[in-house]
Amino acid sequence: MSQKMDKSSAQLLRCFDDVCKLIEKENDFLAAGKLSEAVALLTSKQQQMEKLEHALEADAPSGPEGVEHNAPVTHADAPAGDAGTAQAASANPRKHLPQLNAAARRFSDLARRNRVLLRNAIDTQNALLKLIVVDAVQDTGTGYGATGRYTVDSQAHGALALRSDV
Prior knowledge:
By secondary structure, the protein is mainly alpha-helical. It has helices at 7-31, 35-40, 42-59, 86-90, 98-140; strands at residues 142-144, 150-152.
């Protein structure tokens, strides 16, 4: 492939850019603790990822060993004494543009950071839920009874206990 960008590579580059912008936005929300805003991006993120998958498939070589099946073979591509054959085409693997390599690295870096931020958000939510559940379990045994007096129920066994005095 020449250094000139073809249509499928240009589309792939746009898709990488769109997905990266969305992941950057999500990462900013996650880092700021704005989980509801990050969750709101999920549908858009899924759609952009699907577009990226399709662009990757469209840009993927279809021939043997990474060579496009319909790509023309020239003397420069062929090994000596074997010009113009399909075997010659397979000897020259397709090379991507530096822009695509840079976009893929950017995507990889953002995805790695996104994974860490999502793990941190999940861990934080789990810690908060644990605190709420522990408090609920501790509070289950105390409260006001049917008589209006403050009581302590030493037989409360869980956060959701049925009490006959209520």
